[in-house]
Amino acid sequence: MHTHAARLGAAGLAAMLLAPLAHAQQEPVADHSPNRELATLKAELAAQRALVNKLMLELQAQQAKIDRIEERREHPAPALATSAQLPARVDELLLSEQRGTGGQNSGASGVPVANRPANPAPSTPGPMNGQPASQPAARAPNQAQAQAPQNNATRSPRDGRPPEVAPLFEAPGVLTPRGKYILEPSLQFGYSSSNRVALVGYTVIPALLIGLVDVREVKRNTFTGALTARTGLSNRMEVEVKLPYVYRSDATVSREIFTGTAVERVFQTSGKAIGDVEVAGRYQLNNGGPDKPYYIGGLRYKSTTGRSPFDVVTDCQTRCIGDNVTGTGLPLSLPTGSGFHSLQGSLTWLFPSDPAVFFGNISYLHNFKESGITRLVRDGEREPLGELAPGGIIGFNFGMGLALNDKASLSLGYDHSTVGRMKQNGNSVPGAVRTQLGTLLLGYSYRFNDKRSLNVAVGAGVTRDTPDVSLTVRVPFSF
After folding, report:
1. pLDDT in tens, 357-391
2. What does the alpha-carbon distance between residue 408 and residue 422 come to, in Å, rounded to a whole number?
3. Which of 57, 71, 261, 467 could staple 192 via S-S, CB 3.0–4.6 A?
4. How far is CA 118 from CA 53, 114, 144, 157, in A?
């Protein structure tokens, strides 16, 4: 009996101990084993690898586009794109904008930089190295602003034409493309003053003069309005026609010679008429590029359509030369032309170099001699002068252009000309000397749009015979 009770007690105790274990086996237990965590990490790694492979494929596609653009830079394609090529050209423009490249005013397709999207959206979606996809787009405007002035200042367009600079001199540096027309109205103002002192007598000692002193002061104002038309026969050749209209006014302050008077007299005269019409042609001799010069040859012809100095009445009662001289010897109205046919050959060079463009020009102007020239004096009389041959003009200039942004540019330069002596009947005219003309120039240019711009140039004379100041304003329109 006691044994049976002990067995029952032992069985009850075992049931009590095994009951919680059985209940625990019936409830599910979460599996936190290392195998399950390893499987999760492997799945995430596979997803990251798939994303990296996708990004690598897109990067290879972008690199292929970059290689095609570099190849087209070495071998430029035609400016016009066909409908099949248009999507690729658009991709190139967007990529060029992201990389900070391009020409001065336009890219391969001729689209102005100002009209391109300043912040194209990145083509790579999704996060990269823990950064959001919008972060590269936020940095794009700063990069474009930092690189645009430098690229626009020096990089030439992809059609092999020189970069544009603010014009300082008469001949432009960039030729007109084929099929384009440029109409350029301009206005030029020049002012000069000169003093002349003539001593008539003899000196007893170096500090004492016995005789008369002839002092003259001349103030001269010149306004020249011109209309210039240019067109391109090809991408390397252009022709130009210039039609000027000239207004001049002179004031001469002097004292009558041989009279001993202390009263000053003022002799004023003026003249206005059409000037000498000019015709010019220019041709680009080579293909330049960054750190490679461009060479442009030019030929210009000047006619005699303006009023000749020999066709205006001169203030002489008898003769203006010789022993019997009376009157002032000055014209009653001023001429607007030179009176001689001229032909000028020139060579212009441009050298792009970051962040500027250097340019220069050398030229020679030949004036053709004229025979049987007579000068008109009072009462309709003519004074024979014989054969006159003006001296040739050797000129050179140089300067530097710098683009401030995609619309504004600045240029600095110097222009110098050497004028030879005039000859009469094969002999040098008495008193004729070689003249040196030097001018410092500062030019500004602002492009309103693709068809209209404003150019301003200011010149200051550095030699006595050069106009003291000159101001030129040009407003070219392209069609």
Report:
1. 899 999 999 999 999 888 888 777 788 888 999 99
2. 43
3. 467
4. 30, 8, 7, 19
